[in-house]
Amino acid sequence: MVSDRAGVRASATASPPSGGGVGASTSSSSARSARHRRLGLLALLLLASPAVGASGQAADAVPFTAQQSAQGARVYAQHCAACHGQQLEGFSGPVLAGPAFYGRDMGVPLHATFQYMAREMPVGRPGSLRREDYAALMALILEKNGYPAGDVALDYDTALRADAPLYFHRP
């Protein structure tokens, strides 16, 4: 296999299209050239577009509501802010929002962070919050990192399995 500049793979042993030999007419050459341009444009559009799943939503879309995030802010103020800072900026605990949070290229799935949070936090009392409070905390983290709130709430079990990448969305 050989890769061209657009990253499209083609067989190195592929036979030329019919009519492609020496002395081929200019019109068939033009048609091939136009077809290659269209295929190249299609490949470029596919590579440049955001990942979209079968549901039509972006691959990094995660369901949560604004109400969940507001609940998460209350839980966060009581159980998390002392270590992670009032604005999730980090203090003795790591940053949970903003440019210093996970980068998109790190490929950290949401479930990895959620599982750690639900099993190990808060410090000194791991796993002591209600399931809906952990989901609300994740909703807050998502909102503070630029994920849009929607009409569907994030539930605990969904968060445990969510493969969506977790990262800071630059404004």
From TrEMBL:
Pfam families: Cytochrome_CBB3. Keywords: Heme, Iron, Metal-binding. PROSITE patterns: CYTC. Residues 1-31 are annotated as: Disordered. InterPro entries: Cyt_c-like_dom, Cyt_c-like_dom_sf. Gene3D superfamilies: Cytochrome c-like domain. One of its GO terms (molecular function) is electron transfer activity. Residues 67-145 form the Cytochrome c domain. This is Cytochrome c. It comes from Pseudoxanthomonas winnipegensis.
